[in-house]
Structures are given as structure tokens and as C-alpha cells.
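3.2 Worked example (two chains)
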Amino acid sequence: MKIFVDTANVNDIRRMAEFGILDGATTNPSLIAKEGRNLADVIEEICGIVDGPISAEVISEDHEGMIEEGKELAKIHKNVVIKIPMCEEGIKAVYNLNKEGIKTNVTLIFSVNQALIAAKAGATYVSPFLGRVDDIGYDGINLIYDIREVYDNFNINTEIISASIRHPMHVQQVAKAGSDIATIPPSVIEKMFKHPLTDIGIEKFLEDAKK
């Protein structure tokens, strides 16, 4: 399973990139707003750090605007993927951008039907938000299993990006569910390194080495 970092903070991305585990990155308007910077500048900088797909989201509400935004964002770097919300106008934009060879990531996916529609329109990636599904009392991991099953049934090549990852167990679960990618906040990636038995083991080795 590929690992993307889910943030627009370039300092955090540089720090995560030093581990050599990043395959890409995802951003959204909320993450960009936190940085108080221009979207294009942030995306360009991230592309210089991570050699992999970098999702940049459009903010237009009609498909014509999404298409124009997408074309401009795609000019920033060959690795830019246009992130588009799951809605009727968004799917029109995905269909048209796909015809022009521009990669897309359909975000805010909460059902198999949405994932199927996005794939049929030509989406390169879909981003089901499993954490938000959990928040309303449903099982977000089952959503990943179900999308994987449907895609495999019909040899659909659209890749699944498990998003809204809240904790390390989510990462383990989506990997078992067959997600192609998990996009993970830096704070959760840091927790993935940790295990109390590892800490105890290191401490014991160091104590023994001093004897």
C-alpha cells in the first residue's frame, strides 16, 4: 500500500520525506487555508519535495470553472492531480479532464455508488472518507472493503485513496482491506513508528551495552 501525507504544511512534508516512505501528498482548501499561502505556490513547493502524485483541489462550483481551474493547476507540475468533489458538476469536470489526459482525484466519497460513478467518469483516484463515516456511527472500514470488492469484480483501475485517517489502526485496517493508498496526517505517521515494546527493548539494549 502506498503512503501519501495529508497536509499542506511544507515543513511537515519535508520532515516526513526524510523517512523515505512517501509516495505522494494530498491537500484540500481547508489545509491550504491553515497555511495562509497561495495554492499554486504551495503545490509547486510540495512537488519539489515529494516525487509522486500531489492532489490540488478546485473550488469552483460549476463544471466549467472546475475544468478551467484544473487545467491551470495541472500546468504547475506533471505530478499534479486535480482533486474534485463528488457531485454532478464535479463528475462532468472529471469526465472532461480525463479526456484531456489530466489526472483526477474525486474526494468526499461516502458510498460504493459514488465510487463507481467516479470511476466510470474516468477518475484516476477516489477518496473515501472513512473517519467521517465512523463519526456518524457507521463502519468506514467496511466502505473500503466494499469499494475494493466492486472494483475488483469489474477490473476497474481507479485507485482507492483511504482518507480521513484518524489513528494508526485505521492505516492497518485499510491496508488489510486492500486500499491502494492511505493518505495520512503527519501526526498519525509519527505514531506508526511507536510501540511500547520497542521502547522497552531499546532501553534494555542500551542498559546492557553499558555493562
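3.2.1 Second chain
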Amino acid sequence: MKLLLIRHAQSQNNVIEDRPDYAQARQPDPPLTAHGHDSARQFVQDADLGGVTHLYTSLMLRAVQTAAPIAARLKLPAHGLEQAYEYGGLTTGPAGGFNPVTGGDHATLRTHCPALLWPAHLTGQPWDGGAEPLFHARATHVLTDLRARHPGQDRVALVTHHDFAGALIRAALGWPVTDTPPTFHLAHLGTALLDLPADGRVGGLEWLNR
């Protein structure tokens, strides 16, 4: 299986990260900026998405919005992958005491991505928003799940997030679990291609930020 990681486009939190009032102004589940939407639409014109057979997305709003034009171009459903969310999940942030926030439900998120398919175990429910401090075991779980779903020669795309993409790459390469900052940095709408053998052996990184 080939796994194409795609980082979401620019979100409204990204553009205020350097402001002194960031802690008060940040949103738990920020949407894309206008620039982010434009970039996502341009991405599907420029990126090499040939051969992608299946599309998955984190259920965070910025990822779902990024997945929408990709799904439209590929004429594929966007499978919601609950465990592909960013480090920390959805919380109120430093100003709000990092209180957990529930994620969107299917009806709400589908207004942003009509192709979104909801995880079967969450039928009729929103996703819980994550809000957990560690993510390395979750990255391994996501890779194991995708390998089980796609044991053949599928080419799978996953719209995800900066830190979690780094954790996925480290897990695929068999690197030891660590709580140090991510070694691999993925720009907005940057891509990384992983080669994942079906038998669970250590995978390979074919490119980063193409």
C-alpha cells in the first residue's frame, strides 16, 4: 500500500499564531482562511494525485474542508477517520484551560464536504474531539487499521495534520516512540508518500513536501 499524507491548508488559527492575544483568539476547531480555501482548490489542480484509490480525512474542520476539493476532483468519497486528528485534539486552548470540546457531527461537516462518509460506529453522533495528550500509539493504530483495510496495491490519501503526520511517518519507519518535537515537518498542503508493506514490515518514505 502507498499512503499519501496531505497536510490541511492554512487555518484561521495559523494566521494568528504570532499575535500576543493568540491564546484568547484561537478557536478549538478553526476553519480554513480564504487563502486556505483558494490554496486547497489550487492544490487539486497542481498535485500529483494520479492513482489514488481511496481518500480519508481527519474529522477536524480544517481537514474536512481541505478534503472537499480533493474528493470532488478524484470523484471519491472522503472517509472520515476519527483517529487522524492533531495532537491534543479539540480543546479551548491555554486561555480556556484546555477543556475538551466535542467535534462536529456528520450533518454539519458534510455541509463543508458533501463527499464525507461518517465512521459507522459514530452513526448519529458527533466525534468526541480527541483531547488526549499523547499520539504515538494512535499513529501506530491508524497505520495498522489502514493496512488491514488495504492489504493490496491501493494508493490511499489521508488529509491530516502537522504533528500527527510526523508521528505517522516515524511509526511507518519503525522509529522508537519519543515525546520530542516532530522530526518531519510538513508544510500546509505539503505531501509525504509512505510505502507500507502489507505484512507489517517497516515502511519507507518516498518523498516529503512535494
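3.3 Remarks
The CA atoms of residues 174 and 202 lie 6 Å apart.
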